[in-house]
Amino acid sequence: MPLFHNLYEVEEQARAVLSAQAYDYFAGGANDEITVAANRRAFDALSLRYRVLVDVSRRRLSCRLFGREIPAPLVVAPIAFQRLAHPNGEVASARAAAAQGLPFTASTFATTSLEEIRAASAGPLWFQLYVHEDRGITQDLVARAAAAGFEALVLTVDVPEIGRRERDERNGFRLGADLRAANFLPQAGGAPHAPSGGSGLASFVRRMRDASLSWKDLEWLRGLSSMPLVLKGVVRADDAKRAVDHGAAGIVVSNHGGRQLDTAIPSLQALPEVVAAVDGGAVVMMDGGIRRGTDVAKALALGARAVMVGRPVLWGLAAAGEAGVERVLSLLRDELDLAMALLGAPDLAALTPDLLA
């Protein structure tokens, strides 16, 4: 296993091997990156009030997501363009997740196709979707994911326009000639480019998403497959309730890792009101700022069923490929296990709000 002792160390290792443009693309956020930092501060602001003299000789970390039991409440978040970080890209990350028995979420903008990811991994796979203006392209993507045995459809709902990521503008971010968004035919626009300077990613996403998408479209989307529909990017109670009313099976409380609307509410801060609004009607998860097992414990104590992990997975991939991703996931799992022992929580149900101060 690669030698890094925590998820902060692996980021430094990744930064040392990535190009400055690639590191800035993955690490950066919108505008002044206030929300990127706020996601992390929200966890640090919560203290843990632990129980004592509880039998924690055996801990149970498993949970059930959409009919599947997984060994820990961890899901690999959708991350675009992973071959920019390592030649094996999404294949390495999916294999590492499978080795841990954890779901891997493939991005619409993966640099490896859905079919190639499935061929490489026998583990649970989810598919993250951006709805294209050409609904036929969207329909085809969903059909391909279903045919490949993907188990959930994760619709990102916080990108009607792409946030202004100044690092990418400054760097003129684009993929190299050997990389492309592998789920699209070249004529559909498979590679970010920046013909007049600025961020190629921004121009690419503007061409590849439908800003008119609204609640009325969810019934159509749910009708495309039997996969449970998960909405990613919800931070409001009223939107969460509306999601359940429109048939969403899951919600990810997320501000897109601070990459969309700067000064947006930290995901952890938004989590309790979403959980209360859903009232058990959907699986609630969250992402943004997870770096320690104690962070996972805090999110679960506030009502999340599981957390999604994004940038740290990417850092592990850049630093050491498949083994690096597996190390990241095993560190989080082991840190959560230790935190539960020290909190007096023998299972996930014992992670309750009274543990927080």
By oligomeric state, this entry counts as: single chain
Strand content: 5-15%
Structural class by sheet pairing and helices: alpha/beta
CATH class: Alpha Beta
Question: How many structural units, i.e. domains?
Answer: 1
Order of helices and strands: HHHEEEHEHEHEHHHEHEHEHEH
What's the rounded overall pLDDT mean?
94
User: Number of helical runs?
Assistant: 13
> Strand arrangement, largest sheet?
3-10-9-8-7-6-5-4
Low-confidence stretches: none
CATH architecture: Alpha-Beta Barrel
Rg, Cα atoms, Å: 19 Å
**How many distinct beta strands?**
10
Query: Major sheet, described briefly?
Result: 8 strands, parallel
What percentage of residues falls in helices of 4 or more residues?
Answer: 40-55%
Q: Could you state the CATH homologous superfamily?
A: Aldolase class I
N-to-C CA distance: 36 Å
Shape: globular
**CATH topology description:** TIM Barrel
